[in-house]
Amino acid sequence: MVATDAQVLTERLKVARRIAAHIRDGSSDLAPEPMVNLASTYTDPDRHRRERDVLFARTPQLVCLSSELKEPGAYLTFDEAGPPVLVTRGKDGAVHAFLNVCSHRGARLVREDCGKANRFTCWFHGWTFANDGRLIAAPEAERFSGAGLVDRDHLRALACEERHGMVFVMPTPGLTLDLDAYLSGFGEVLEGMRLQTCERVKAGVLPVQANWKYALDTYGECYHFAALHKATLSPYFRNDITVHDQWGRHQRVNFAQRDFDRWLSTPESEWGLPAEPGGIHLMYPNVVLFAGSVSPGKSYLTIFRHYPGEAVGETRTYKTIYALGGVRDEAHRKEVEDAFDATAYVVVNEDYVTAAEGWRNLTYLPKGATVVYGRQEMALQQMHRNFAEALGEPICPQPQAHLQAAE
After folding, report:
1. Whether the Cβ atoms of residue 323 and residue 312 lie closer than 8 Å to each other
2. Distance CA 12, CA 277 (A)
3. What is the number of alpha carbons within 13 Å of residue 192 lying toward its C-beta?
4. CA–CA separation, 324 vs 5, rounded Å?
5. Which CATH number characterizes residue 244's domain?
6. Pair 81, 142 in one domain
7. I want to staple 128 with a disulfide (CB 3.0 to 4.6 A). Which of 36, 71, 137, 388 is the partner?
8. Residue where one domain finishes, among candidates 176, 208, 240
9. Does one domain contain both 132 and 44?
10. CB 186 within 8 A of CB 283
């Protein structure tokens, strides 16, 4: 069920009241104390390999929004998490996922990124499969009689589920997908974002020579706005106020626009809150759903999906922008496209330039060197606790005596 305007406004008002209180009190949501983390968290190739296996190949992945598989026969391929994945919508409207691997001798079955088809023919030997995974034709099939086609009459299925206007896949075969456990109550927040109504407008890939976590970190705090984004974001957004919420391993942060100061002298009925979702949603382990814009008064949905490369210092960010409620007309489409370009400019020319330089610098630090996340960077603290917990690794010992002395 798609959230109503009233439901969205109620949630936005709750967050707005917390922001207004922080403006009034000169405060912010804060972690109890700073947190240090080993610099090798970002540079260790062995840890990088474990992350790719545990956090990506063996963790539910957001493949797309439901609207990107709109009709029966629609399909897309997904390789970002490691295993090659094919996702289809069957004649019954259900979503299916498979390894994108021909069951004959392992050739890639579907080579296109997306499209619409009821069947797929392997370009190697011509084996043909229906979009529900069944083998429906194989040249000279009689020569595979007996054991030849045992367990080869279908593609290898992957666990998948469609919910809240999103399609999730477990990329590794044989693993189950417990979406309730994974979302941990975050589904109610996603439902309020009305993702079922979104229409894809523009997509692109933003590469960066940095570890994927270093790139991801920049989305979870506004502390850097005044320095790094002094000409792009700082004129519109404060860097000292964050409202932070958490559901299991998923988080949401909201930042204060500078013009929100007027809320202190105006009634709530005049705050002008839009009936559209807002905030930066950090969906574990690697997804950022940004409901808003780098320009005040505008609102779009942008999804950033951060995926590690083969090397520890390689990241590809898959960025897609959607029109909330669909594209109204060509002028609206152009507005959303321009918003994509504006956000990409800030990310590529400011955030990712800094991320590449910073990550390279970390590679030169001595063993045991650390980075620190301040109390206002509570989302980063929680992200790295989540990653360490999933990998079964201890958190870097915290310098308690130093912290107590500083207080």
Report:
1. no
2. 7
3. 20
4. 13
5. 3.90.380.10
6. yes
7. 137
8. 176
9. no
10. yes
Q: How far is CA 37 from CA 85, 244, 310, 314, 403, in A?
A: 34, 21, 23, 20, 15
Condensed to tens digits (0 to 9), the pLDDT of residues 227-239 reads: 999 999 999 999 9
Tell whether the torsion through CA atoms of 96, 82, 174 and 390 is positive or negative: negative
Between CA 165 and CA 28 the distance in angstroms is 32
85-108 pLDDT per residue, tens:
999 999 999 999 999 999 999 999
Q: Are 48 and 69 within one domain?
A: no
Q: Rounded mean pLDDT of 163-184?
A: 97
Q: Is residue 60 part of a domain?
A: no
Q: Are 122 and 214 within one domain?
A: no
Task: Decide if 391 is inside a domain.
Answer: yes
- Separation of alpha carbons 269 and 131, rounded Å: 51
Please report whether residue 40 resides in a domain.
Answer: yes
**Tally of domains in the chain:** 2
Token reading at 323 = 């029109």
Q: Are residues 141 and 26 in the same domain?
A: no
Segment 8-16 long-range contacts (CB within 8 Å, at least 24 positions apart): 8/192, 8/194, 8/275, 8/276, 8/277, 9/273, 9/275, 11/192, 11/277, 12/273, 12/274, 12/277, 12/278, 13/268, 13/273, 15/243, 15/254, 15/278, 15/279, 16/260, 16/263, 16/268, 16/271, 16/273
- The HSE-up count of residue 375 (CA atoms within 13 Å, CB side) is 10
Residue type (1 letter), 118: N
Same domain? 231 vs 159: no
The pLDDT tens digits of the residues spanning 254-276 come to: 999 999 999 999 999 999 887 77
- CA-to-CA separations, 380 to 178, 216, 319, in angstroms, rounded: 25, 9, 21
Phi/psi of residue 389, nearest 5 degrees: -60, -45
Q: How far apart are the first and last CA of the chain?
A: 49
In terms of residues, how long is the chain? 407
Structure token digits, residue 173? 């075969």
Residue 146 corresponds to which amino acid? G
Query: What letter represents residue 87's amino acid?
Result: V
